[in-house]
Write a structure and sequence with these properties.
This protein is α+β, with helices and mostly antiparallel strands. It has one domain: Immunoglobulin-like (Sandwich), CATH 2.60.40. The chain has two helices and nine strands; from the N terminus they run αββββββαβββ. The strands form two sheets. Strands 1, 2, 5, 8 and 9 form a five-stranded mixed β-sheet that branches. The chain has a four-stranded antiparallel β-sheet with strand order 4-3-6-7, with no helix packed on it. It is elongated. The C terminus is likely disordered.
Length: 168
Amino acid sequence: MSTNRSSLLSCLRAAPLLLAAVVLAGCGGSTPGLPRASVRGTVTLDGTPLSEGTVRFVPAGETPGPKVSVVVTEGKFELEEANGPIVGSHRIEIESTDHGGFALDDETAFERLKVSGQKMIKVVRVPWIYNQRSILTADVTSDGPNEFTFALRTSQQSSVRRMPSGRR
């Protein structure tokens, strides 16, 4: 009886590791048979480069494949073809990761601010229409160049344009 119990316990201990291995195997960056493309561009908010953020290319319509994220630094982003989005139509989600230079859970930083007498932290907030319910779209092509300018407005009017092939 104890041999059966120890075998059962061993199997139960191994099950989470096996499940994790199966899940991680399905999270690879390659998508066989689906063409990817490099992308680059700029993100501004009210005419100022977005200091820190994330742009997500979320497949839309008939475009298959996983969504792809890219970091925005000082208003610029770039992904090479190997890690780029699948060729096709995408909904674009943009979020700021600028929390005023402080982690939201950093209690000692907030205590230092209180001691210094600073009342406000400037936090960049991208309007919700550019986040998970974004109205932005972009078509990624196989022949490129896939250079995009995302001009965001806090007044919730936006423009997206593809840059001419000679401009960077």
